[in-house]
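Appendix B, record 7
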Amino acid sequence: MSGVWGNKIKLSIFGESHGKAIGINIDGLEPGIELDLDYINKEMERRAPGKNKLGTPRKEEDSFQILSGYFNGRTTGTPLCAIIHNTNQHSKDYEKTKNLMRPSHGDFTGYVKYNGFNDYRGGGHFSGRITAPLVFAGAVCKQILESKGIVIGSHVKSIEKLEDKSFNMVEIDGEKLKALRENSFPVLDESIGLKMQETIIRAREERDSVGGVIETAVINLPVGVGDPYFDSVESTLAQLLFSVPGVKGVEFGVGFDISKMKGSEANDEYYIDGDKIKTYSNNNGGILGGITNGMPLVFKVAMKPTPSISKTQRTVDIEKKENAEIEIQGRHDPCIVPRALPVVEAVTAIAILDLLQ
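Structure tokens (predicted):
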């Protein structure tokens, strides 16, 4: 199973949703980096389940324990390893449906790839629960980046058909990006945000789920980060973003809409501002030739509706090899978008730090 990523910063994730613990090993961090554990805890709390009626009622504190690579408040330069104990599993919810392949989950593909030996409880290693260690790693990387003045922030761009305002892709304020993290449902237009939350609650009441889009910005990146082709900023970010469960699409800048423009509209024209070269527009999202151009790096990710819904669905019994129906039991998010924001930011921070090394 592929649980390792990275060139200069190497990650290895481990664990299952209903196992004893989940965790991550981070190799490649410089020695002497001071870590703010309160900062990490706040990031973990943003992703943690069971906080409000918009998410799953499963409550996990996501308290982490650092096992190695940290001494006297600073990194040692050896691999930084952290674990998060699972404390609130309802494994019996999955016993009676273990042979029923849940639609749009990794049950069927996992069963085939691992010859039926995969842990099916709560999705096992395929579960979004495994993103908690990624948030830990991302919080470490965010601190390092912020010490260099690089800030990452996100907001809920859409839920179902409801659209929030977009970031101003030319001028994005770092303090406002940080302030978005303090909001349990980060949006730029609070009135739209309330309607989005109502949509999520209604989906839960209807035993259904909804998806949405997250827009993320990275500001104060130096010019020249990344390489053409295989190690471009887009390809590096996309690999990690598509590793987040539920992500089905990624677009940079204006994304697919750039295909509807003429060259004269899409091109980001240059101008001199003091000692810096900037662009009047930012349709390419701060990346040209796979390399940062000094403008804000902006991208969006599309999250699918949570596949675990309580409505009756058609499926197959993998053991009996016959058609069947399933009503999924257990505790699930009617929308994973709000809790996915810190995960998207986390993998962004990991990718950017790897590119900067």
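Remarks on this record: Residues 4-356 form a domain with the Chorismate synthase, AroC fold fold (CATH 3.60.150.10). The radius of gyration is 21 Å.
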